[in-house]
Amino acid sequence: MKEELKALRQERHNSAVKWKEQTGGKIVGVFCCNVPEELIYAAGMLPVRILGEHEEATEGNLHFPTNVCPYPVSCLDQALKGRYDYLDGLVVPNVCDMIRSMYGTWKLNLKIPYVHFLEVPQRISREGSKFFHESLIKFKDSLEAFSGREITAESLARAIHVYNRNRTLLRQAAELRKEGFISGTELQGMVMASMLMPKINMNELLNRYLQEAGKRQPNRDGVRIFVSASMLDDTDFFELIEDCGGSVVADDMPMGSRYFSFPVEDANDPFAALAERYLMRIACPRKMLPEDRKRFIEDILDGVKVDGAIIHNLKACDCHLYEYPFLKKTLEAKGLPVLFFRGEETETEMETQRDDIEAFVEMLRG
Amino acid sequence: MPLKAGIDTGAMNTAIVLLDGDEILTTLVVGSNEFLSSPRAFLEKMLESAKREWRALESVTATGRGRNGIDLARKKSSEVVCQARGALWLFPAARTVLNLGAESSRVVSIDEAGRVKSFATNDKCAAGSGLFFDSIAQLMDVSLEDMGNLALKAERTEEVSSRCAVFAESEVISHIHRGVSKESILSGLHHAVVDRIMDLLSKAAVEPDVVVTGGVARNPAVTGELSEKLGLALCLPAEPRIVGAIGAALLE
Question: Which of A184, A228, A301, B40 is most exposed, with the fewest beta carbons within 10 Å of its own?
Fold first, then answer.
């Protein structure tokens, strides 16, 4: 099943093209955890998360200096190489400087019919939530104009229901991960597939997967690891940890628990509910204050037994690197040894990382 | 007494140690490429010179970057753990191990039983590594062994930046063209390398005794300046390249 999940990521472009051929529908790419995919879904289109790839960004590098976050560069590189030619639309949220730059670079260099810039407030606050609420209404109007389809109260309620179902299933998977029924690599594979596949199909797949996983013999041999990461858009780092004798039992990252942590709650006012979930509840250091991040991470760690923590930040990800000393202190105060990596988007560093992870696992085994 | 072998295959050299109980029976340091072409032959030769039989070997444990390529080792262990065990065996009061290898540098904090408390590795840059010294030695036409002593003879120090191995090389070339003495350039290079090592040490709580291991520990200009900057006497093994292999041999 692990292989099945892996294939969903690897084959994502072919699957997207096939989906378009079969349904005649439109596909909208999204960046980051702040874009309410429910709205795209309610307009009858397929949202897919934009991912980078482990290859030299020969085209992307031409547009940026070297000392920037490599993830968006790799995403642009993939698009310039034609891998995202099937996209009908793209939504770029105003999150960090590099993601923001995706708006201009994609608009100028690619021929995507619809590119929307979604305003996201800088900080989590009640005022911000109100602003974001308005920003989502504009987003809805813009999606309706592009798709030619009205987003009705019913279609949005249905979308929220399907997405909440996906979050519930992923949260159940996270519980099974704590017990060793599901590996960290598998759960990350499920999250990534959820970001790419039509949600109804994904929910069916997850349902089946969880039933089978619950019957397995749990693996409880691994050293229990908590991972906090800025951007891991492939499962290979988790695979490496688990290959070295670790088990990732909990995480704090955008392509992990931040994707499924909280449901969209109040269905009576769906836009307020979407603003609440997508702005107020996602624990990204770009907009959440350190004290709140600390509480959030302590809550995760209170719910699971962990032996050590690995922090993986992509180079030049200012939002996460700024927080690193504080995060390290928080984890150490909980008695957890911390291993830190400043990562790239390429695979070349995996072997040096393996050395450190093997040593870390051996150290934790004592 | 049980006969145990430890093998530490690094980026440049491989160290092999045969331990007979608590005693080092024999040791060997050989180029890693040469060793990896026939690991068994090297071990057999060592056993032969020590007048021991292969079947008397109770265990063979490998460590170092190349450990996974050594099939005859029944056990593999990380460099961090092996350096810690080896350093404590040589210096029972050791609490910090600074391993300066060809490719990577590490600082390891250990407890009184030799258990690893924490460790930090150098970042990806090659400046400050043993291979950096190797390339500079070739560039300046001096031997790796003489570099440290030549640097200590310098009357003045020529500034060399510590941030990048490639830029440092081009700086060295300009200094040579300006007629600066080899000693002064080498003195600057050693300062730059020690600066990098001090950066690494700042990531750890350095507690005495501090043991320095790996090929770079044979360089008196590096260890001298480190000792001065830390304000501590350093524990220097007679052969610092074999510490990881000793640790590997000691593992149960």
Answer: B40
pLDDT digits (tens, 9 = 90+) for A253-274: 999 999 999 999 976 899 999 9
Question: Class of B92-236 per CATH?
Answer: alpha beta
**pLDDT, mean over chain A:** 94
Max Cα-Cα span within chain A: 62
The residue of B121, B123, B203, B252 whose CB has the most chain A CBs within 10 angstroms, and thus the best one to mutate to test that interface, is: B121
The model's pLDDT over A288-341, given as tens digits with 9 standing for 90+, comes to 988 999 999 999 999 899 999 999 999 889 889 999 999 999 999 999 999 999
Residue contact A359–B65, C-beta within 8 A: no
Q: Are A1 and A176 contacting, i.e. CB atoms less than 8 angstroms apart?
A: no
Cβ–Cβ under 8 Å, residues B246 and B26? no
In chain B, the residue whose alpha carbon lies closest to the alpha carbon of A353 is B121
Q: Give B117's contacts in chain A (Cβ within 8 Å).
A: 337, 363
Same fold: B1-90+239-252 with B92-236: yes
Residues in chain B closer than 8 A to A366 (CB atoms): 115
Q: In whole angstroms, what is the distance from residue B30 CA to residue B22 CA? A: 23
In the CATH hierarchy, which top-level class contains the domain B1-90+239-252?
alpha beta
SS3 B248: helix
Ordered structural domains, chain A, with CATH: 13-149 (3.40.50.11890)
The pTM for the full model equals 0.90
